[in-house]
Amino acid sequence: MDDYINYIKLCVAALLPVIAAVVLYLLDRKTRFGSLSGKVRQIIYGVCFGILAIIGTEWGIDINDAQVNCRDAAVLTAGLMFGGPAGIIAGVIGAVERWIAVAWGVGTFTRLACTISTFAAGIYAAVLRRFMFENKNPGWFISFAVGVVMEVFHMTMVFVTNMNDPERAMNVLKAAAPVMILTNALSLMLASVVLLLISQSRREKKDGTATGEQSRITQTIQRWLLITVILAFLATSLFVFRLQDRIAVNQRDSLLIMALDEVEADIRDASDENLLNLTRLVADEVTVDDLRAVANRREIAEINLINRDGIITASTNPDFVGYDMRSGEQSADFLRLLQGTEELVQDYGPISYDENVYRKYAGVSTEYGFIQIGYDALQIQHDIDNDVIDITKNRHVGQTGFILIIDKNYGILSAPDDLPHDTLTRDLIDTGIPAEDVIFSATLAGEPCFLSNRHAESYIILSVLPEAEAMRTRSVAVTANTFMEILVFAVMFGLIYLLIKKVVVDQIMSVNQSLGRITAGDLDEVVNVRSSAEFSLLSDDINTTVDTLKQYIEEASARIDTELGFAESIQKSALPNVFPAFPKRKDFDIFALMNPANEVGGDFYDFYLTGTDTLHFLVADVSGKGIPAAMFMMRAKTELKSLTEAQLPLCDVFTAGNNALCEGNDAGMFVTAWQGSLDLQTGLLQYANAGHNPPLVRHAGGRFEYLRDKSGIVLAGLEDVKYKTQELTLSPGDVIYLYTDGVTEATNAQEVLYGEQRLLDALNSREFESMEDVCRFVREEVDAFVGDAPQFDDITMVAMRFIGTPPPPEIRFDEAAIDDITAVTEFVDGELEKMDCPMKTVIQINVAIDELYSNIVRYGYKNRKGPITVKVIRHEDADTVYIRFEDEGIPYNPLNRQDPDITLSAEEREIGGLGIFMVKKTMDDIRYKYENGHNILTIAKKIGGTKI
Amino acid sequence: MEIIKKQNENTLELALIGRLDTTTAPQLEGVMAESLDGVTLFILDFEKLEYISSAGLRLLLVGQKRMNKQGSMVLRHVNSDINDVLEITGFSDILTIE
Q: Closest residue of A to B54, CA-based?
């Protein structure tokens, strides 16, 4: 019962380090304990496991003055799982306590061995953790191996510290080694497993997934090295075992046979001596007549008298008389007594006369021949039993082996005192006795033994050697060898591992680190691992590769840079980028600015005039960035411009443009666009929006406001979408500001967007001299906001101020008459003079005025008087002057009149229509329209034009 | 417009100074109406004429038609501007320009 309790205590002591490991691990990770400094924590770990080591000692089981315990497990767990210093501290505590513990009865025999081992365990674990496991939990398998090696060391120390008493040491080991090795190794393994499980489940919780980590090269080496070492260990152990076993068996055999030889010789000597003595006595006293009487008295089986001829002359057995001694081999032997030999004794055996009869003979020569007497078994035994007992009783075979003498009925004649005869007899009967000199096993009085037997003088000699002794040398040798091998292989394992790690793994890691930096973009990193020729070569190869790569990348990027440079300049030149864009125009001011995020961008702006009175301006943003966006942008820009220039209404420009862009848009790109068409005469702004950011408008004297209207869908998004034209009237001084989302979505380092509000505030923060001022100011504001953060999107903006034109000079006559022509001509000439108009042109215009004015007076106001207004219109940037005639006469388009046939003769020619014909010929353009009850006729003439 | 009139037997020479247009054409028309009777050579000196409008051309045509019946009409010193006008209107073909 006590045994059970002891074993339970041992198990608990083995489990305690595991539990402690879990508790300390959790404390470390989950409480403020983890925030203590490393040194303090190591001390705490060390003390905790030191206490557990003491418990391990105290709860050990005493066997043979030695102790089975799992003190080492606590020390190893501390050192291996929690850090070297902790292990060493625990080791010292455990060792010191073990040393003193002798005082209260813990085994003395293993005191030194245990103390040394416990201390060594701490250092051993610390060294392993530091150099082999890189401060990581080595895993269950290795942990187990570490535990086994430690305990083997411990056991070996028991040997080493007790060299003078190896048998006892062996006994201690027999009792303690398996249990100690197993409990300590298992305890350590369990701690490793549990800690791994906890840390893994924690990591899973953190990551959400279990990471199937690839085994590292060191782990692979560890595993294979371990397997190799174990195989090598098994092979050598098996060999040593076989060798030692053979040696032990040979020794045993020779020991047994030698004992038989000796005892047999002794018995024979005793028997021979006895019979010869008897023969001598008989020879002296016997006569032919009293043979029988002497034989009876002396209890002799047979007495023969043989003459010089070798013939039996007298015998106790009458049958033998006359027997010729020469007739049998056994009897013939005695004839030597006739040839000078004085005495002869034969071994107990079959006789020549009758093979079934066993006798021992001796003979002594006499004057008449010789006398021979024969003894049978019982007579021999009777004579020499005591001698035999004397010879064998205290005889040892080896150290603990002995000799048994038995008769043919297994009756025990001689045996060691402490072995009961009847038990031995029974054991021997059970086993049976094989042929002589054969080695066989039997259990005698409960102890397994090896035996051999020999027949001698009717006795059976058994030499006995207990198995324990027979195999002791083998066990000692094998155990010692095994332990030493485990230690040697463990050291080898460690050294090879460290060597590989240092020579290969560390270098690979070093190469890897460099490669990591290279992969991260540092192409200037140089791999410089020169520990061996191979690594040197590898380093050189990598460096060369990286250099080549660097060169290629540089070349490629140079090429791309060049191409991008071209693309950039093509894109820039596709947009109006010379400012002021219309230096002669004073009726509006426009400025645009574009900063692509990359070399080329998907944003674009555009502005151009159609005729002289309509300014078109737009800003657009193609989805995406870079080259693809830039290419699509070129398409969109061309499409919109050509449609606009085809004089389509703005809504149709967008509708048709959308359809055109939808076609073949496999890349699924789209454009947001805002386009305005401003009539510079009236200030009427027509605009259309395809999903673009709302522009900002500031009416003269007011503040900027977002122009939010219902927008159409983006261009190239969906076919056959209809867009709407919206209208807004601008007054002179009004400003409109267009931009792309690169402005409002500019982001600073804190990921905050610039936003519409900031843009609005910036625009309202001050007055602006020019539209360039507007754009540059906003750009600066955005830059200041963004700071060092990189620009993600193209930034584009267009600002336009409508200045308008002053009303053109005009002259008006309420009741127009032919005579007014002079005044009109003078007025127009005056205006033309301001324009440095060449004389010829003035004359041509005068002729035109004459023709047109007189026409209106004559035909427009045929029967009544009415007003005529003549305006001289000239655009700043244009070299064309427009003269406009407005009247309220009957609707009449002089251009409809057929041209006169100028090939007719003077007699045939009509004078009508000549005037208009002349005007058509001399002027660059003439247009007529009837609007609101007004005939409006406008002639255009290039100043300095060379027409006619 | 100013018209300098020189009459010598059957020759009438009118030098026009200024503009021959809608407003001034009646002036020339008047002179021609009162002076052309019996004239066989009608000379129009355009040396000082600035320009001519369709009203002027009409008078040239009227004059040419009339002189076709009683003699001939000659335009003298036609400057290039006016010549251009006469060219484009086809008048250069039916008038005699010296």
A: A915
